[in-house]
Amino acid sequence: MSAAYHLKGKEFRLFEKEARPGGLARTEKQDGLLFDRAGHLLHFRDAKVKGWVQELLGDNWLAHERRATIFSQGVETPYPFQAHTYGLPKETVRDCVQGFLEACLQAERHLPAPDDLAGWFLHTFGEGFARHFFFPFNYKLWRRDLREMTADWVSWSVPRPSLSEVIAGAIGLQTSPMGYNSTFLYPRRDGIESLPRALAAAVGPIETNRELVEVHPKEKMLVFEDGEKVRYRKVIATLPLPELIRRIQGAPAEIQAAAQGLKQVSVLCIHLGVAGPPISKQHWIYFPEPGFPFYRCGFYSNYYPAPAGRHSLVLELSLRPEELLRRGPEIQESCLAAFRETGFLQSAHRVLHLSALALPYAYVIYDRHRKKHLPRLLAWLRGLEIYPAGRYARWEYGTMEDALSQGREAAAEVRG
C-alpha cells in the first residue's frame, strides 16, 4: 500500500489475498478489547516517515516512552538486561559485570567479532550476560543453535552500553534509555490496523480475496486462484520470498532450491482478555527462562485507553514451522497456567477471552545460506521486473517504518 500511495497518478492494480488489507498489522476486537497480530509499534528513525504516518493517522495516535522489563530468576528488571542487573542475585550481577569487563579488555586488542550469533554475544557482552540472558532468550526466540546463525543483523537492534553504564545499572543508578524502540507511536483508537486502513483510504480501490497462484514471467502474466489472468509490466510483491519464487513458472532449479533453503521461525500468539485489577504497567515483558513457554508478554491495553478494569495481552511463543503445524489446543491452557505461575495473573483476575493466532512467517533466520543466496535471488527477481518489498519479500528483519520506506523505494524503482 505504501508503494501504491507513492504511485499516485500512475496506472496500477493492487491485489490483497485476505478479506481486508493490512497483513500482520491487523486488529481484532473481542469484549471491547483490541488484539493485534503480536506487537506492532511505530518506531521511527526517519522524521519524514514519522510525519507522513502522523498525517495519515490525524489525531489518532499517542506517543509513548517504552516501559519494558525482563522477568528472570524471580526478579523483574528494566530492559535492556545488559544495563540493569541491579536486583538480580549478587552472583549473577558479578558474572555479568566481570564478563563485560573482560569483553572490553578483549576489544582493546581489536580482534574482529565472530560472524556467528553466539560468538557475537560473547565477544560483545561477555560470558555472564550471554549465559544469564542472551543465550537462553535467543535460543527460545530462534529455536536453533545460535552458532548456526549469522550476526549481520543484530548490532542495530541490540544496544551495547558503555562500561560505566553497565556498572551504574549493577548498583541501581538510572541509565539513559537505550535501543531503537525507546519511544514509539501507537493509535489512540482501533489498534494498529488504523494505519493500514488510513493507507487503504488514501490509495483507492484494493482488490481483496485475490490469492496469487502463478507468475508467468515470459508472458508477463499473473494467475489468481479464481482463474483470472492479469497481464503486467512490472510487479511489486510482498509475499514471503520462498512463496513468491515457488509460484514463478520456469524458475531454474538452483533458484528454487536457494529459495526453499531460506528459514524462518513461526510465532503463536496466545491472546488473553482479562477483567480485574491492573496486571502490569509495562508495555511488554521478556521471559528468557525455559520454564516459561512464551518469550514475551505484550500488554496491548497499556498502549491505548482500554475500558476500565479490562486488559488485553498477548503471550508470544516462537516455534519452528513444523512445530506450529503439530500444535494442539492444549497449548492455550498450558500457557495460561505458566503465566499464572509468574505471579502477574492472580486469583483476582478473571479470564474473559482466550484464543490462539498462528503466524507461520514471523522472524526470518539470518544464517549462512541466506547470506550466500539472498542477493542472487533478489537480483534474479529484479531481472524479471518483479520488485520485492517488505520484510518477508526481502527476507530481512525490519520494522513498520522499513516497510513503509521500502514501498516508497519500490515505487521509485518501477517508475524508472
Average predicted confidence as pLDDT: 96
CATH class of the largest domain, named Alpha Beta
Distance between the termini: 19 Å
The name of the CATH architecture of the largest domain is 3-Layer(bba) Sandwich
Please provide a written account of the structure.
By secondary structure, this protein is of the alpha+beta class. The protein is built from twelve helices and 16 strands. It has a seven-stranded mixed beta sheet. A three-stranded antiparallel beta sheet has the order 7-8-9, with no helix packed on it. It starts with a helix and ends with a helix. The model has no long low-confidence stretch (mean pLDDT 96).
Note the topology:
Blueprint: H1 2-5, E1 27-30, E2 33-36, H2 47-57, E3 62-65, E4 68-72, E5 75-78, H3 90-107, H4 117-142, H5 163-170, E6 183-186, H6 194-203, E7 212-216, E8 221-224, E9 229-231, E10 235-237, H7 241-246, H8 253-260, E11 264-275, E12 284-286, E13 296-298, E14 310-319, H9 321-326, H10 330-341, E15 350-364, H11 368-383, E16 386-388, H12 400-415
Parallel strand pairs: 4-12, 10-16
Antiparallel strand pairs: 1-2, 3-6, 4-5, 7-8, 8-9, 11-14, 11-15, 12-13, 13-14
Helix pairs in contact: 3-4, 3-5
Quick structural overview:
The chain has 416 residues and is an alpha+beta fold. The protein folds into three domains: 2-47 and 192-249 and 368-415, FAD/NAD(P)-binding domain, CATH 3.50.50.60; 68-170, no CATH class; 264-364, Alpha-Beta Complex (Polyamine Oxidase, Chain A, domain 2).
Features:
416 residues; FAD/NAD(P)-binding domain; Polyamine Oxidase, Chain A, domain 2; 3-stranded antiparallel sheet; 34% helix; 21% strand; globular
